[in-house]
Design goal:
Blueprint lengths: L8 E2 L9 E4 L5 E3 L12 H7 L1 E3 L3 E4 L8 E2 L5 E3 L4 E4 L8 E4 L10 E2 L11 E2 L3 H17 L15 H13 L21
Parallel strand pairs: 6-9
Antiparallel strand pairs: 1-9, 2-8, 3-5, 4-5, 7-8, 10-11
The protein binds zinc ion.
Length: 193
């Protein structure tokens, strides 16, 4: 915790690239677009701060430490089209775990300066998806190719279809599901091909 970014999440152990680091689970809070919570002026700022927005205007707030993960333009974890987040590179003990907020459909522009990052975008924009999706997919694909080679403590939380889809991609390079399925307005029924 510090004055600049508030709270953050730090690795307590070595996390190899390709590790599934977050899976939505039934304890996470899901707020649908017709929820009265969104009209509550006391709760709304907290919802906007911590929720990620998914297609269907589904807001999800992780019940665990996931909601405290900060953004970085050189993120070491990222969401995927498979409903989980993955480590993009090896994360050392003590290193801050940082996510790519560009996939969260924030809906507004947010200033963000990443310390020590040459390629910091300076701003998170609602249209980041349009500019960076191909880059994110390339990073995710590289991480997915390592999924079967590293310990996966969260593997049991993935449903059978997801496990099979991931294993198939790792083994054959086929059937990749783009992170673009998370973009607002994207069809939620995109089938692997
Ligand atoms: Zn940045």
């Amino acid at each position: 915790m510090n004055d600049q970014v508030g709270v953050g999440v730090f690795a307590t152990a070595f996390i190899p690239a390709g590790t599934v680091v977050y899976v939505q689970d039934p304890l996470d809070i899901v707020i649908l677009p017709d929820s009265p919570l969104l009209q509550n002026p006391v709760l709304r700022p907290t919802i906007d701060k911590y929720a990620i927005l998914e297609p269907g205007e589904r807001r999800v707030i992780g019940w665990d430490a996931a909601k405290y993960v900060n953004h970085c333009c050189q993120a070491n974890i990222i969401s995927t089209g498979y409903g989980f987040e993955i480590a993009l590179r090896d994360i050392q003990p003590g290193e801050e775990v940082r996510d790519e907020y560009g996939v969260f459909n924030l809906g507004w522009t947010m200033e963000w300066n990443c310390p020590h990052v040459d390629s910091c975008r300076g701003l998170l924009r609602p249209d980041d998806f349009d500019h960076y999706c191909a880059q994110w997919d390339a990073q995710i694909q590289a991480a997915l190719r390592q999924v079967m080679d590293v310990p996966q403590p969260l593997w049991s939380l993935l449903d059978v279809e997801t496990r099979e889809a991931v294993r198939r991609y790792a083994d054959t390079g086929e059937g990749y599901v783009s992170v673009a399925v998370l973009k607002m307005g994207a069809s939620t029924a995109v089938a692997p091909h």
